[in-house]
Amino acid sequence: MSLPSERFILSVADYLTGERDGAVRHEYVSGQAYAMAGASARHNRIALNIAARLNSHLADDDCEAFMADMKIRVAPDLFYYPDVVVTCDKPGSDPYFRTEPRLIIEVLSPTTERIDRHEKLAAYKNCPSVQEYALISQEGMMVELHRRTVGEWQAEIFTEANDQCAFESVGLTMSLGDIYRNVRFDERAED
After folding, report:
1. C-alpha span between 29 and 120 (Å, rounded)
2. Could you tell me if 90 and 99 are in contact, meaning their C-beta atoms sit under 8 angstroms apart?
3. What is the mean pLDDT of residues 70-80?
4. 103/165 Cα distance (integer angstroms)
5. Largest CB tally within 10 Å, which of 66, 106, 148, 181?
6. E strands, the chain, where?
7. For the purposes of burial, counting CB atoms within 10 Å of the CB of 85, is it exposed (0-12), middle (13-18) or buried (19 or more)?
8. 118 HSE (CA, 13 A, CB side)
9. By percentage, how much of the chain surpasses pLDDT 90?
10. How many CA atoms lie within 13 A of 18 on its CB side?
11. 144-166: string of b/e by CB count within 10 Å (b at 16+)?
12. Homologous superfamily of the 39-179 domain (CATH)
């Protein structure tokens, strides 16, 4: 009979120090760090299309759009790297993460879809500053937008190129055609 191995618990301070000095990004969940994988061309095109529009749209606003490398702290022991995030908080004592995300967008990948749909959705629903969370397929045109309303969350699904997806939390509407601009579905996507 073998003894169960001890689980190493990483402190938030050690995690943040390691992220500053490390070459690989990690998400942090309750004392555990999880390495982030690279992304496909499709994944990058979708995220870039949205981030570029948000960046331009928010040019004269107090809110800022970030893509891929900005951590968000959604709970004391929970840090994620969304594909695209809009935050409206002032930079705090650490320039490597923000604490008040308003809009979070994840491009779904086979390796992350379960976590994005369940674990992260639950965490974001519990983060008071999050008003919208979008899950975007890279396998075909499909945006699933979760929005906080009075007392509950509602979801909308968009599937047609001319569908208008309104990110109400930041006052920006994009067609699926714009979100998926230059995306080639005949390319193989593995992440």
Report:
1. 11
2. no
3. 93
4. 13
5. 106
6. 26-29, 32-35, 64-67, 71-75, 78-80, 84-87, 97-98, 101-107, 132-136, 143-149, 152-158, 164-167, 172-175
7. buried
8. 4
9. 64
10. 15
11. bbbbbeeeeeeeeebeeeebebe
12. tt1808, chain A (3.90.1570.10)
Q: Do the Cβ atoms of 162 and 177 come closer than 8 Å?
A: yes
- The conformational region for residue 61 under phi > 0 = left, psi -120 to 50 = alpha, else beta, is beta
Give the integer Cα–Cα distance in Å for 28 and 82: 12
The percentage of residues in the chain with a pLDDT greater than 70, rounded to a whole number, is 94
- Cα atoms in the 13 Å half-sphere on the side-chain side of 125: 17
- Domain positions in the chain are 39-179
Residue whose pair of structure tokens reads 């969940």 in the numeric block:
29
Q: In sequence order, what are the residues at sequence separation of 6 or more whose Cβ sits closer than 8 angstroms to the Cβ of residue 152?
A: none
User: And the tokens for 19?
Assistant: 């992220």
Q: How far is CA 180 from the centre of its chain?
A: 17
Structure tokens at 157: 């699904």
DSSP of 25-62: -EEEETTEEEEPP---HHHHHHHHHHHHHHHHHTTTSS
- Residues 191 and 109: beta-carbon distance below 8 Å: yes
